[in-house]
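2024-03-11 09:14:02 DEBUG pipeline.ingest accepted 1 chain
2024-03-11 09:14:02 DEBUG pipeline.ingest length=193
2024-03-11 09:14:03 DEBUG pipeline.predict start
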Amino acid sequence: MILWDAENQQLMTPLCRNCPEDYFAPYRPHFEHVGCCSYSPVFSLYELWKMVSSGHREFFINNIYRNPNRTVKEYSVVVHAHVHPEFELYTKECDWRDAEEEFKLSFSICQFFVKGKGCGLDPRFKNGTCRSFICSAVEERLDQKGRVLLQDSARQIRYEVETFNQVHQDALSKKGWNLIDHLPQVLDYLEQL
């Protein structure tokens, strides 16, 4: 069963509370089971616009841009998940390089995950992946109506985010601005949209 949250433009399912997807199972039993919240979210121009246009510029700067475990790219910011220290022990013993990032998910927890709640972010600030992802274990349980809802909603979210990002990345690129070197200008630009 999936639900469409029209206010926040996101797919949801109560099954997440007891994640049925083996792919996202923790590597060790003593690790917290967080399901797909093992992901490192990527905040694109679209999510930045949602933050600054709603008066949360400082939240973006303090919690995402200045986060000590993030990577700033020209038009996005990756906030890296917390990785359990045992991951290093396993990668030293084995040659996992080809599948290291995928394997790392079994040791990771998104920095915005809140135990007993799930995502601690304001729903308006979740990225497109977090708003549209439904794992295959849940998808297999859906009837035809649920599958259509999933496909249509995910497509709508992806289109909205990709279109916004392309238009505004092109505009910022023409100005010679990016998040690495021109943060105030980019945020002012997004705030004025």
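2024-03-11 09:14:41 DEBUG pipeline.report The chain has one domain: 3-191.
2024-03-11 09:14:41 DEBUG pipeline.predict end
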